[in-house]
## 1
Amino acid sequence: MRRIPIAKQGLPYILALSVLLILLFFLGWTFLTLLALILTVLVINFFRDPEREIPQVPHAVLAPADGKIVFVGPTFEDRFLSKETLKISIFMSIFNVHVNRIPLSGEVESIHYEKGTFFAANLDKASLDNEHNAVVLRTPEGEKIVFVQIAGLIARRIDCWLQPGDSVQQGERFGMIRFGSRLDVFVPADSRPAVSKGQRVKAGESIICYHQPIK
């Protein structure tokens, strides 16, 4: 049976708007009916969850989110890894698919949620100051990577469906952020970038870098 390409988290919003749309239509309020129709279409578009072709490429790290690359470069990750890393940041507008996917297979070591402010997600300070949820993952080779869901100016809800100890596969769904947000990925410093600033990527499909396994 083929799955409906809509994230189940969006169904309550879509149902409520659909009921409102029908009610306004039968009341004959044309202008409000058109507004409700536009809003319903936008919400359906936001919660779409298409299938993706997961590339089987050795040592590839996949994009955890749809959107635009806003940062690629070396960064000292001092909260969870305490070492130099390669950081890649992806900004998601409200028009992107917002279902997030696992960048690399492994085991979830820990999850860290922090409340925060709501700066625009494309700003660098959003990584530290905004509400965020960090996932620390250990690969089969024993390396650690971190990927962080960051709420944006409009986003007010981070969903993460993982638990510490979960074994996860590259490309599988793990959560979403509602209404505009950002994903930061921290991988070993000797990883080779496969994207550049301004490039657009797709979650679970686009390769963002290649990591070097521990020898």
## 2
Amino acid sequence: MNMASQQTLLQPEGRVLSTLESDGSRRWLYPRLSTGRYWQARRIVAYALIAIFTLLPYISINGKPAVLLDVLHRRFTLFGYTFLPTDTALLAVFMLMTLLGIFAITAVLGRAWCGWACPQTVYMEYLFRPIERLVLGRAGVGGKPKDIPGWRAFIVFVLSLLACLYLAHTFLAYFVGVAQLRIWVTQSPFEHPAAFMVMAVVTGLMVFDFLYFREQTCIIACPYGRLQSVLLDKSSLIVSYDTNRGEPRGKIHKSLPVVEKQGDCIDCDMCVQVCPTGIDIRAGLQVECISCTQCADACDAVMDKIGRPRGLVRYTSQAALAGERTRIIRPRVVIYAVMVLGLMTFLGILLATKSPADVTLLRQTGSPFLVRPTGQVENIIVVKIANRMDQTQEYTIALVDQPKLSLEATDRVVRLAPGQLFQEPVHVLAPRAVFDDGEYAITVRVTTPDGHKVDRPFRMLGPLGVPAAAGKGQP
């Protein structure tokens, strides 16, 4: 076999990636815009989401920001409730519930998130591409411009940079709060160089994403599209081309008789020209499809022009296209729904029964116990108390039902500000006689002024070989 034959065999039948040319170079996409019914609905949703994203950091619930993910101080506020580092179980349940919720939505609605609500899609299609179309004069045309004047490219870059600055500042407001962000913005960068570098890096990443990487984020970087094969089934909602109705495709020739079995697809390629990821929807379900419905809008417009029914490309399911019944209620959907409902109930119970204080008891490092000259056995317990309330609280430390034991502490009554953490050692003294095989179980109680009690068990250690019964009645 000669070299020419080998090269011929190695040539792919089509593009390996929709954004990759046959020679391996980047295929830049400049999709046309089809302003159909789905696009109009998506635009309303997109601008509503942008408004929510912008305003949410400024909204307060019960005197707290609606959302504040304070990573530095490890305090995460979500819709009026603050999670502390000790809320690992709560955060785990919340994240698992969110993940299963995404699975459930995907099983029913397919990639509705990608096409309607994903920030990448929302900002790319309703902020950055409109800027390009406006400045480059490509509105309603699409396709790669043959020659872009330098001044137009510069204006696109400047406007896109301003948009990225807006997004970066808004994004960081979720992590530092609007008050702190306002201080950073109004002061010189030299007064807070670390914060300025964070802002610059976030802005740079957004410029890279929306001006260079663009649809590659959805095609290559995002794992969600790769999960379609396990999250979707035959009854999941997808955007698809109806091959039964469209094939065999062909051009319309008014001077020729209508072919008896010719389908409705006239092979105009409009569905390909408007696709933001560059795929051909007629090739079937593909991981690159983000269900943005641009192909459906474009095809509907063509069907209107040639006098044929809409819906050649539409929301449907693989079952419906195969002539089967689409079942909304099916095992995987029921299982997801039951699991999400169970986790929501469990999370609600955890939140409703959550203590106003987090109390942790730790054993002092070093010697496990000391025997004082008086014969009493001393254990040192490190008591940690975190105030979970939004007001300053006083906490009283005491032992439960232990008249023979005594507790020595620098502060028996601890006053803590909201979110403040107390950590101090306390000394518990017990007679040797109470120890059975070197151990004795006690309970430390932390009480709030409103009468809420938090009990924590602790196992005291003492000398071996002194049975508890031997010293009954001894001090």
## 3
Amino acid sequence: MSHLFAKARFGMLLAAALLALLLTAGAQRSAQGQGTGFTPPQRQEIVGILREALREDPTILRDALAAMEMAEQRDREGQARSGIARNRAALVGNPADPVRGNPAGAITVVEFFDARCPYCKRMVPALNELVRRNRDVRLVSKDLPILGPNSVLASRALLASQRQGKYAEYHDALLTTREDLTEPVLKREAEKLGLNWARLRTDMDLPEIRQRLDANLALAREIGIEGTPAFVVGDRLAPGALDLAALEQLVAAAR
């Protein structure tokens, strides 16, 4: 790793030297009343410096870019940790959020998901197995409908089903169907589970359900979530679909 950053530092020094050369040459020409362009020999000199450095070690540019990406990743992780710390209560302590697994579990896994997201659908078996195998895990669900009107419709239906005590069952039904989550599909799946569709459809339009979805979106932005699924475990944000082993590693680290 130190070798990588040494090369990256050399690449940055090279860029700084080229910038200094550009500024110096530009200033000279401006002082001479010749504008800020560069003569052909000056441009040739600049290109020659860069070519010579890359000829001697062509990995300079690659390593510099890799180091920059790593630095950006560290910055994102730091920002996520700060956002998680600031919003801890909203993430893990909102009594309105649906909870699966052990409600009193010492380890909280927070999932941000969209019911129409194909990667979120893949997570259903792994998350169910996670809470089955880890009795100290509580799984908090944060509906985050970002894939269009039918995603919003499905999230409203899911939160409305919570009022009839069927959130977990309805969640799994919607995320395991291959059909798009149009209203007829939502109605059919609800009735299969014994939900009162007329009541559920009315509850979907309650202002508090819209407010909860808006709050989830604001919370996701605050901690740097850019897509679904995304997981918060302890002080870590883990974006993207994860397998059971990766989920258990996050839980173990949080312990």
## 4
Amino acid sequence: MNNPQYMSGTGNNFLVSEYEKSKTDLEIISIVADSLIDIDGVIFVEKISSKTVKMYYYNNDGSTAELCVNGIRCVAKYAIDNSIVDSNELTVIAPIGNIKTISNGENISIEVTIPTYDQNKIIIDNNECIHSKIGNPHLLVQVKNVEKFNLEKFVNKVYQSKKFDNGVNIEIYNMIDKNIINARVHERGVGETDACGSGAICMFYYLYDTNQVNNNSIILYPGGELEMSIEKDIVTLSGKVTYL
């Protein structure tokens, strides 16, 4: 690996390196096994131009994903800090398309178009669930107490339902008030993680669109907080990116 660095985007930990060639799932699993710390995924960064990079993302089980928002934010900081690009505003090419990022020191913001969600709720284990997509799929579940909820048991119920052939990211949340949301997440191909940027976007937009939260809200994950806002059809997510 060329210039590998351990990075964290609000608790999502990655090993980030410059791109050399595509990796097989077995190669990724080997990299994860040899990692000095627990990581959620492996990311490679390829320079396209002075303001554009391409992201190659792998979950820690070797699988790929359509979108990893906190990974994109790590890519942006890595590209800037290693002089791969020459601007604090750059485009990251991800599987779902081009993502605009803005860097302000440790705080990295991204802008994405609004996700979609199904109007009809899905009932799983007596829980009302909302299916939402932003390139990758999410299941949003409001619970009484995020910390006490048995997420692992519920994940098993979701997969036993056989409603998601390609898997799904599962977000549980409870409202603290109309500006603060408490959340945990189980990501497909990874397991429970400390945060999920794409899940935060899906959660925020659904709650905002149904008048349950205000604009300029915060989602609290075990790994830290993500600031969320919306203007017209663009959702902005901001949070810290650090080196480990």
